[in-house]
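Entry:
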Amino acid sequence: TRRILWVLMQLGNAIGAWTSRRMEFDADRYAARVAGSATFKHTAIQLKRLSLAHAEVMRNLGASWENHQRLVEDLSAAVLRTVAQQPRNIGEKIEQDMELARSEWSDTHPSDIERIENAMHEDAAGIFHVELPARSLFLEFAGVSGDSTCDYYRRRLKLDVAKSQLISAEEFTHASDDRRRHDLALDVFFSGAFSV
């Protein structure tokens, strides 16, 4: 009976994963119909760039708090500044990585390249064509983003941060650049023998 239960469990997992992938494909088709199939690939690459930048900001945020009891006052501004500092060919590298990845039967989400192919197959012109950044939808984006950042520190990180402990995104990314150069210098000096 255990083998039967195991087979049923695997079958349930496979059906659940397949259904989840279908839902993602449906959502992507609607996105293509709204914004156009041609923009889908660019958007997928931009989301990866933002994700990489966010991960870097979060690593640096931990180091900044641990070493100096300082946090950035606007997380989204820090992420955007980090994106702007990424290497010029980062989009090409992301696209190459996307080309290599394929989803498996147990994956709940399709790979990026499968999602892009699905959106391109839709061949939709789109109905919403605006080249403005999303922040233009807000009257006072910097204020909303700053408030959200402080709320994130309080609710998610459980930190009671005073205004005097907040630094600008410019100062934060500058300090992060200094830390990156320092880590690189140590890595070069020790020939990669120690990881920092």
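Residues 2-35 form the longest helix (34 residues).
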